[in-house]
Amino acid sequence: MQLWYSERHTAQVEFSIKVDRQLYSGQSEFQRIDVFDSKEFGRFLTLDGYMMLTEKDEFIYHEMMVHVPMAVQLDAERVLVIGAGDGGVIRELVRYPGIKSIDLVEIDELVVEVCKKYLPQTACRMDDERLKVYFEDGLKYIRRCENEYDLIIVDSTDPFGPGEGLFTKEFYGNCYKALTDKGVMVNQHESPFYADDAQAMQRTHKRIVESFQIGKVYQAHIPSYPSGHWLFGFASKELHPLRDLNAVKWNALGMKMKYYNTRLHVGAFALPTYVEELLRDVE
Fold first, then answer.
1. How large a percentage of the chain has pLDDT more than 90?
2. Quick count: other Cβ atoms within 10 Å of Cβ 239?
3. What is the DSSP secondary structure assignment for residue 158, as one 8-state letter?
4. H/E element holding 16?
5. Distances (CA, A) of 150 to 5, 98, 170, 177, 209
6. 112-129: per-residue pLDDT in tens?
7. Which phi and psi (to 5°) does residue 110 adopt?
8. Mean of the per-residue pLDDT values for the chain?
9. 3-state helix/strand/coil string of 172-183
10. Are 67 and 257 in contact (CB under 8 A)?
11. Residues in Cβ contact with 34 at an 8 Å cutoff, skipping those fewer than 6 apart
C-alpha cells in the first residue's frame, strides 16, 4: 500500500508527496499537527493539512526570512519573532553574536514540543540563552510593545485559522509602534501565482504600505509551497532594503549559507512584471 500526502492548491491543482510513514499526529487547542517522513523531502510538518516546512527546502524560507533584514539592520540587538514554533528562524538568528535578546511569541505550545522531538534540524537552537519563549497570541502581545524591537519577524501560517489576526491592519500598526526608528519588519507574504493566494497577498501588502513609510516585496523559489513562487514583505520606517544593504560588512561575518547571498539579496527585489502590477494595484 502506498501512502501519499496531498494538499489542494486550487480546485484544479493538488501537490502530493509519497510518504514513508507518519511520525506524529495530534490535535492542539488551535490546530491539527502532523509530521511525516518521505524519501524526497525528508521529514515535513503540516498544520491543519497545510504544508509548513520540509527538511529538504526549509533552508530557503528561513534564510530569506532572517538574513535579508539582518544584512540591512546589522546592528539589531532586540528581536521579536511571532510564530516560528518550528525553530528555523531562531536557528538562523542565533548565528549573529550582536543580537542580545530574542523574544519568540508562539500561540501553540504543542507545535514547539513536536518540532523539538521530530524536527531537530530546525528546532536545534531553541535552547539558546538569548531566547525567551512566550506561549500567547502575537496580536495581543504586540499591543503592549512600544519602541522596543530592532527587528520583528512575522513567521505566520496562512491568513486563516490561528494566524488570521497576524494579517490585519491593526497588527501591522502595532508592529510599527513596537519598532525602533531604524527597526525592520519582515513577514511571509503569500504567493502571487494562484488567484486566491494573489488576493491574500494584495490585502497584506495594502495594509503594510498603509502602515509603514517603506514597504517592499522580495521573492524566493520554495518547491514545496503553492506554485513554488513565494513572496516576503520588508517594511520599515527609515531603512531601505537595497540602499541600506551592508553587503561588505555582512560578508565579513563569514557565515556559510545554502541559499542566501548578498548578490541574491539585490536580485530578490527584482520582481516579475505581473507581480509588480498586482502590488501596484493596491499601493
1. 93
2. 19
3. -
4. strand 13-19
5. 39, 12, 20, 11, 19
6. 999 999 999 999 999 999
7. -65, -35
8. 95
9. HHHHHHHEEEEE
10. yes
11. 22, 24, 25, 26, 45, 46, 47, 49
Give the span between the Cα atoms of 183 and 152, in whole angstroms.
Answer: 8
Q: Which three-class secondary structure state does DSSP give residue 190?
A: coil
Residue 90, H or E segment? helix 88-93
Task: Single out the residue of 187, 149, 172, 160 nearest to residue 61, CA to CA.
Answer: 187
Tell me, what DSSP letter sits at residue 80? E
Q: Which whole number is the average pLDDT over 235-249?
A: 98
Which active-site residues does the annotation give?
155
pLDDT confidence tier of residue 230, bands split at 50, 70 and 90: very high
Residue for grid cell 500526502: 5
Q: Which amino acid is at 163?
A: G
- In single-letter form, the type of residue at position 268 comes to A
Q: What is the pLDDT of residue 258?
A: 98
Distances (CA, A) of 187 to 19, 22, 117: 30, 30, 26
**Quick one: cell of 204?**
497584506
* pLDDT given for residue 50 in this prediction: 94
Cut 0.85: pTM above it: yes
Give the max Cα distance, the chain.
58
Residues 6 or more apart whose Cβ sits within 8 Å of residue 267? none
98 Cβ contact partners less than 8 Å away, ≥ 6 residues apart: 74, 75, 76, 77
DSSP secondary structure code for residue 134 in this structure = E
CB neighbour list of residue 35: distance below 8 Å, 6 or more residues apart: 22, 23, 24, 25, 43, 44, 45, 46, 114, 118, 119
Gap between the Cα atoms of 209 and 207, Å rounded: 6
Strand 131-134 to strand 229-236: parallel, antiparallel, or no bridges (unpaired)?
unpaired
Q: Phi and psi at residue 113, in whole multiples of 5°?
A: -60, -45
